[in-house]
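Readers outside the structure-tokenisation community will struggle with the description of the input data as it stands. For illustration, here is how one protein appears when written out as sequence plus structure tokens:
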Amino acid sequence: MTARPVAKRGQVIGLLGGSFDPPHAGHVHISKAALKRFGLDRLWWLVSPGNPLKENGPAPLADRMQVARAMMDHPRVTVTDIEAQLGTRYTAQTLMALRRRYPGVRFVWIMGADNLAQFHRWQDWRWIMETVPIGVLARPGDRIAARMSKAAKVYARARIPGRAAHTLRRAQAPAWAFVNLPMSDQSSTAIRKRGEW
């Protein structure tokens, strides 16, 4: 377990959750893009103990944390295992716990377009959407599926245009922005399939 990340009242913190199994350059790329495009003060990598939507468990948390810290070297990005400390399993639970522990801090959930495409399968996904702004970063091949997803359709009126994505930091939920970027096509799944993890 590591020390809990520090946040000051009034800061806007982006939360990039995932198993990071393994962490890769694509995670670094979207983290830097999220800081810039969504006007975040800081960003936390929430390295999860496990993903409820995946059948097989990830590599040991300590291994993933070690590689993530070595890879993500940025003064405004913190790699944390706070979900393991909190004992939360689902994103909604984590958000509830963080909002209690960090009063006055604004959180923005960051996800890839691939996650938006199946966001409606997440536990309490509507509560998440209506509680924190969401920044979506396009990955190759996921743009159309994400834009046609159930979540995108249900919350179409809450969408902020990509050119105004920097306003997401102060938007009241429900609010989400979809940003197209020249993306890295790396994926943790592909890395595992090649036996490189």
In short: The chain has nine helices and seven strands. The chain has one domain: 12-193. The two ends are 22 Å apart (CA to CA).
